């Protein structure tokens, strides 16, 4: 079985700060991590490899420093890694990103047919959840998003049955390989890699690919290949006024009484809802 | 329906400028569409919120609002068409086929691609739900056009009449406005509960255009074997609650969260929480409010022991009235709450519960 897992290196957004004067992101010192949603997909891919054998190739498009996340993924058990890196990819939106990643997956597919592609549900920086569906559409693969559980895979009939989270319930879907899957968060938890995996992760050479390796049409990547344009980036505006403070002498119960009086007199309609 | 026509060539981008001319082919794209999300006859309310928003955009552009309803033929389709018109649509496209009974990416994206290529809307909006995000990503790729995800604000840019879609990025730390200048249609998914629900106007009239795609079921690989509805519908209730009492890390330990439940009970309110509380297992994760949780817009949002981080703020700032309780007078929550109490939530919550209880008693006696 050949599984490709798309992972993205992202800044740990919990630690992002905005420069108070220039309103720009202060990336310095912000650690880069594997997009947390991608780990659920990677773990699911590794479980399928444990069961059926074969290879798990991790693929990322990003700057050279994204090598670190590929090595990390190998330390969990991924067998191969491709770093797709090229200045020409800079500024790609989701349409251009899915084009570049699909180009790489096609090349991997020529080397050994790809049965499954896994993507994260979404990234924590882009947060679009669009790249996975973009790849599935371009590869003409079945698209199975928000998968809570893979119930069954049958390699002989090439059938796959999954539970997919939808609004108000869970769909049980029967589909066929090749498919693109995004896993729901919490659907599994990432294993600890073995010592062997860690050594292998440190030593195995990565495949370093660029646009000339696999991309047919240069006009479809980077800024040029991106239909969307970011026209403005800004910090959310603070509300014009700060909260009106409710002050009362006499401790918590006096404060509570003052708060309720305030609510009732300022919002008479709300009072009806509050005291039915 | 016939094969989708080949994609029109994109307009030439003016060097660096935002003012440029669309090609004649792309100028033919007119109207603002909403894909109405219906599953088993139930419409997701985000679709009505979007019809209200589409109405505003269409009025700025001087064009029509279109609602697209996909599904199997059935009695409820007429009803949904009527609702779509009452909420702002001028024209409803009903796309009906047995293969569309349950949501599946393949048949839905196939018919939507065809319908867009036939009727050529300039803007297509979907809810940022599991259905909307799954479908939008697929059709924007077949149409090779721009798609902006999870928007919280939409407008028409006066200089080029294109859609200006604003969305949080980097986990809500920043907002960015994204435009699709040289391609049509312009697509966006929008967060549920962010746009205001429009007034329903039963006197509005509109046209219904029936589209019969004649799909052959056997060409679709994925089959729906079963649908298991959530037994716990509470999840849905938080987003639509009129009153919410939310607790944060400032409550210090799991047991103290009971104070939030107590106040919620006297108020008939739902319970919400910040992420550290759901992560610590003090409350179930479906009660998390914020960027990675629910967006809520109640009439009253009481936040106790919540600092007001931007990721929490984006989930609740559209509430009509926000009352914050925090021991730190400089907590960021006071920057966007309407009213604040500086004090210990562990004392103020029970005091509020007690006082509300008393006032209810008084009120009952009086009535
Ligand atoms: C990608 C990403 C997504 C996120 N998504 C979400 C999300 O969806 N929702 C969300 O909520 N968070 C989210 N977060 C986390 C968010 O950044 C904050 O860490 C979180 O909201 C803080 O929760 P808190 O206010 O309860 O806790 P804290 O930040 O620890 O604040 C506790 C507050 O309680 C006050 N306090 C302490 N003791 C008392 C007392 N006795 N009485 C009254 N007040 C007291 C303190 O002054 C403080 O202001 C996300 C973070 C990231 C990185
Ligand atoms: N640059 C990238 N390299 C590899 N995979 C990516 C990249 N960008 C997005 N993905 C994959 O697509 C998923 C969804 O990303 P997004 O559409 O940005 O939310 C991610 O979780 C990854 O699995």
From TrEMBL, chain A:
Occurrences of domain Electron transfer flavoprotein alpha/beta-subunit N-terminal (ranges): 22-218
Known SUPFAM superfamilies for this protein? Answer: Adenine nucleotide alpha hydrolases-like (SSF52402)
Q: Which InterPro entries match?
A: ET-Flavoprotein_bsu_CS, ETF_a/b_N, ETF_b, ETF_beta_N, Rossmann-like_a/b/a_fold
Q: Which Gene3D superfamilies match?
A: HUPs (3.40.50.620)
Q: Quaternary structure?
A: FixA and FixB form a heterodimer.
State the family named in the UniProt similarity comment for this chain: Belongs to the ETF beta-subunit/FixA family.
Quote the function comment for this protein.
Answer: May play a role in a redox process involved in nitrogen fixation.
UniProt protein name: Protein FixA
From TrEMBL, chain B:
User: Per its UniProt entry, which superkingdom is the organism in?
Assistant: Bacteria
Q: Which residues does FAD bind?
A: 274-275, 288-292, 305-312, 326
* PROSITE patterns xref list: ETF_ALPHA
For this chain's record, the cofactor binding note is:
Binds 1 FAD per dimer.
SMART domains per UniProt: ETF
Q: Which residue ranges run through the membrane?
A: none
**Residue ranges of every copy of the Electron transfer flavoprotein alpha/beta-subunit N-terminal domain listed in the record:** 32-224
Gene Ontology BP term (one): fatty acid beta-oxidation using acyl-CoA dehydrogenase
> Which GO molecular function annotations are given, in alphabetical order?
electron transfer activity; flavin adenine dinucleotide binding
Kindly list the cofactors needed.
Answer: FAD
Which keywords label this protein?
Electron transport, FAD, Flavoprotein, Transport
Q: State the similarity comment.
A: Belongs to the ETF alpha-subunit/FixB family.
Name-wise, this protein is: Protein fixB
Organism for this UniProt entry: Skermanella stibiiresistens SB22
